[in-house]
Structure formats: C-alpha cells, structure tokens
Amino acid sequence: MASKPNYARIGDQVFRDVEKINAELFTLTYGAIVAQLLKDFEDVEEVNNQLEKMGYNIGLRLIEEFLARSNVPRCSDFKDTAEVISKVGFKMFLGINATVTNWDPKKPEFSLVLEENPLIDFVEVPEQYQSLVYSNILCGVIRGALEMVQMSVECRFVRDVLKGDDASELKVTLKAMLEEEVPVGED
Amino acid sequence: MTIFNLFIYSRQGNCIYYEEWNRKNVSSNLDEEQKLMYGFLWQIKNFVQKSSPNPELEKTGFHFFRTNSYKLHFFETATNIKFVITSDPDAPDLRDLLKTIYKNTFVEYVIKNPLYTMGEPVRCELFVEKLQLEVRAHTSYKQK
C-alpha cells in the first residue's frame, strides 16, 4: 500500500502559491452581500437558501481551480475526502485549518470544526435575525464542489460561533455516489 | 513531429471544444466523429477499469494508444472533464501538455469566466488565443 500523502504539507504549499487578497476586504465584502440579501429578501430562511445557492454555484467552478492547483491524488474513500477538504481545501481558499471530527462510517458522515472563520470577523447578528446562518455559503461551496467529483452530499451548520457556540461545526453527509454520464446509445 | 487535433468533453459528455492543426484527413461529419470519440473513450475507460485486478485504482488507467500513423493521448480530471489530443506516433507523452492546458488555460480562461455557462461549448476568445500559443509553442508541434 502506498503511504498516505501528507495533506497538511500540500495545503501549506498550495496556500503559499495562490494569490491572496486582503482579509478585511474579503470579510467586509461578504458582510455587505449578506446585508444586501437581508434587505432584498426580508425573510431570513430565504436568505439562508440564497447563500447556500450562491455557494453551490461557486463550488461548481471552485473545484476545478482546486484540482488544477493542489495536485492532490484521487481520494480513496469518503474519509480521505474529509481530510483533503479540511487540510487542503480550507487552507487553500480561506487560509485556515479545519478539523475532522465525529466520523460516522455508517452513514457516512463527518464534521468539520472551524476554530476560526474569516467570514465572521467583526460580525454581530442582530436580535431579529437569530435564525440566520451567516456562513451558509460554505455549505453550498462544499456541496457544489463535491457534486462535481461524483459525490452528492448534504451539508449544514450544527454549531455556530455567532449563535454563542465555542466553535463552528459543519456536518457533511454523503447521500449518494453519482455515476458518470453514459454516451448516447449505450447502456 | 506534429499535433493533429484536440477534443475537450464536458462532464455531460458533449464536445465543448474542438480544434485541428495539421490534420490530413478531412472529416465528413465532425459532429458524428466527436460522438464516436466519446463513445470510444467511455468504453475503453470502463474496459480498462473492469479488466484490472484492482478496479479501484484504475479510474485513470487509460493514458494513450498508438497506431502506425498516429497516437492518441487522453487526460481526464476528477470532475470528468476529458481532454484528448492526437499527434503523430513518435510524439512523447503529451498528457503533460493536456494537464498544462487544463491548469493554465482551461481553468483560468473558461471556468473562471463568469460569462461562460458550465457544460456549454467554449467560445471564449482569450482561451482560444492562449491555447493556440500553448500548443504551437510545444516541442511536439512542428509542421512536417
């Protein structure tokens, strides 16, 4: 058996090579988007949906950038995928590390715990928006990106620093493996 | 040495980009040819995978084939976008060229182009321009 690649090292390497933008600009721009959505839709649930959808559309394309830049080998199983997302994916695009916990091989499902989250710096959610999932865009990105590599997943926040929890936790559940498109006339 | 043509297939199996350089036989029906190529790739990929003693490892098992008159190189991303290039038979492995095209040209000028809809035929001028530069600069590209 080939030994497992060192994902943490790959993550550091690719993070060093990618173009960076100012973190505050990024955080504030995202904040402006969420604020505008709240104004436009007026319904918090709908804003959550919209954020997820925006993330999904980002994920569909972001995965290509990820694969092209990171050179990670094909994942052998879903657990491997979790490691790659946490150590390479989050590092490459957000500059942070996520930790994989609560691995449940039966479903299969895992949690990504974010100690820090650049999206929520300077953020306070007003009283009337308590059900807002501020960083829901991340769920969409993960769902979109994994769908492109034949994994249909469900992703949601189970803990959120903005709601008073000590860390943010994303739960990712594998629903199905998708099949490759069959050419016309074959079956 | 020379390069004949290039096919790019979307994950839905449609030919989203086609280009030819020093092609000598003129295709009577390009559309049909592109479909036939996809069918062939799909079949051989499955065949290669199924005949392997370790099918799990063979997801990218097919790399190229060669005849007396040409060589076909194949590269597929984990997202099932397929890149195919044909060259004369003495060319070295051109999968590196395909990977560079994917990384430096396709992702940069097609995927990151907000006006491009995923899975649609590629009509991005910049992509075509950069692709031409890339292929023509390659050592395997030289008209006989």
UniProtKB/TrEMBL annotation, chain A:
CDD domains xref list: TRAPPC3_bet3
SUPFAM superfamilies linked to this entry: Ligand-binding domain in the NO signalling and Golgi transport
GO cellular component terms, semicolon-separated: endoplasmic reticulum; Golgi apparatus; TRAPP complex
Gene Ontology biological process terms from the UniProt entry: Golgi vesicle transport; macroautophagy
Keywords in alphabetical order: Endoplasmic reticulum, ER-Golgi transport, Golgi apparatus, Transport
Major site of localization recorded for this protein: endoplasmic reticulum
Domain of life where this protein originates: Eukaryota
Claim: Protein transport is one of the keywords in the record: no
Disulfide bond as UniProt keyword: no
Pfam families according to UniProt: TRAPP
Annotated compartments: Endoplasmic reticulum; Golgi apparatus, cis-Golgi network
Function: May play a role in vesicular transport from endoplasmic reticulum to Golgi.
Family stated for the protein in its record: Belongs to the TRAPP small subunits family. BET3 subfamily.
Subunit structure: Homodimer.
PANTHER family: TRAFFICKING PROTEIN PARTICLE COMPLEX SUBUNIT 3 (PTHR13048)
Name used for this protein in its record: Trafficking protein particle complex subunit
Originating organism: Planoprotostelium fungivorum
UniProtKB/TrEMBL annotation, chain B:
GO BP term, example: endoplasmic reticulum to Golgi vesicle-mediated transport
Record key words, sorted: Endoplasmic reticulum, ER-Golgi transport, Golgi apparatus, Transport
GO CC terms: endoplasmic reticulum; Golgi apparatus; TRAPP complex
Cellular localisation: Endoplasmic reticulum; Golgi apparatus, cis-Golgi network
InterPro entries registered for this protein in UniProt: Longin-like_dom_sf (IPR011012), TRAPPC (IPR007233)
Zinc listed as a keyword: no
Subunit note: Part of the multisubunit transport protein particle (TRAPP) complex.
Family the UniProt entry places it in: Belongs to the TRAPP small subunits family. BET5 subfamily.
Protein name: Trafficking protein particle complex subunit
Source organism: Planoprotostelium fungivorum
Lineage: Eukaryota, Amoebozoa, Evosea, Variosea, Cavosteliida
